[in-house]
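Model the whole thing, not chain by chain.
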Amino acid sequence: MTEPKAPDPSRRSERSRRAIYEAALGLVGEVGYGRTTVEAIAARAGVGKQTIYRWWPSKAAVLMDAFLDLATRAAEEAGPGGPVIPDTGDLRADLRLVLRATVDQMNDPAYDAPARALTAEGVIDAATGARFVERLLAPQLELYTVRLRAAQQAGAVRPSVDPRIALELFVGPLLHRWLLRTLPLTHAYADAVVDYALDGLAPRP
Amino acid sequence: MTEPKAPDPSRRSERSRRAIYEAALGLVGEVGYGRTTVEAIAARAGVGKQTIYRWWPSKAAVLMDAFLDLATRAAEEAGPGGPVIPDTGDLRADLRLVLRATVDQMNDPAYDAPARALTAEGVIDAATGARFVERLLAPQLELYTVRLRAAQQAGAVRPSVDPRIALELFVGPLLHRWLLRTLPLTHAYADAVVDYALDGLAPRP
């Protein structure tokens, strides 16, 4: 017979952290950034307010970490290797894969609601926006820069192209359609964006 | 000696309407969409609350009209012919002109603050977003569709391209950089977006 185990404190705090993230994302999606409070997050997560303040200095900090955690887990679920853009040697196929996965994420209500709330807050508040870009967006965009540079070395992208501008031809249209809800975000749309950006709109000689 | 003129009521109400628009745009840029009230707009414009409610059913309606008025005047100032994309026969030059003007507008604080407040509200609230798209955005995007269709007929855009998707390669990157404040919005950037979208990123054979 084995001894009964003492509760593992690191496992318990991992459980609390996850409950706090879920409560934070749920609340911000339901009532918006402005009306989400540390008190409400603590109540929904079933922890004391002190637990949250022991780990994060502010509501902004816990919401940012919750969202980073969501984005990281989504990237991990998307495939082995974690949050990278694959390099199979076929740039078109690799970008279609990434843009289709982005479309799927934008269409997922569990992502859509908190992502809208946090993006809207960043649109209005420059300091929140800067943190959002620094901690979440810039590392994601860097993956495109790396992949496009590799494509340039492989001869699949013109040498004169600036990868940091070029990547906006992929992520810009998706953001436009998602944030402004103009038309449905589909895989066919993602494929067309990749094809138009790679081949251009002007006829080829 | 001429008779002293009676005050012109239509001119007086035009003055009130303009004062209400200016107050509405100023307030929404300063305190945000949620905290802007009809009372505060009336007080700043120097009119009675009843004057506003005689012309508009709600805060949302007056803010939308104020913003439409701002956008229309900006388009009129941009050049004769009003809010159209020119067709000089040179698609690249015409699009550079429009994208540079868009960049200038986004960099103008008088546009930036209310535009951010209204866009953020539309990002969160689907009904506001839908009105924004229907009344303001869709007519603007239609101008791109028309210009790209003319370019297809002139042989400057491949016949297989869907203009409604293609236009997002121009407006998407600008929205991304403006809303998320990633990097400066310059004329050189606008020109690069036009060139990349027209020529594509892949090498031409």
